[in-house]
Predict the 3D structure of the following.
Amino acid sequence: MKNSTIQTLHPNPEKSNKKIDVDKYETIKSALLEILADKQYTHTELMEALYQKVKDNFEGGVQWYGETVKLDLEARKLIERTRSKPEKYRLV
């Protein structure tokens, strides 16, 4: 039986994002939201924290799924980029 997929969104409406496995989406989404609940992170810090959080129990490219889901969460207005230099990510 084929796993369910979700069409992820992209913050730029002119671009499309990927269809990914729902279970992987939910795993990465939960981890990103948990990580960002504590503080703001640069892109590099966020991806490293995500990798450390899920690496032992996640099958697939953590960075690739992390980027895909991060863009989706931005498009859904759950997280946002700050205007600081360097840019950081935070919960909306």
Summary: The chain has one domain: 19-91. The longest helix spans residues 22-36. The longest strand covers residues 5-7. The helical segments are 22-36, 43-54, 62-75.
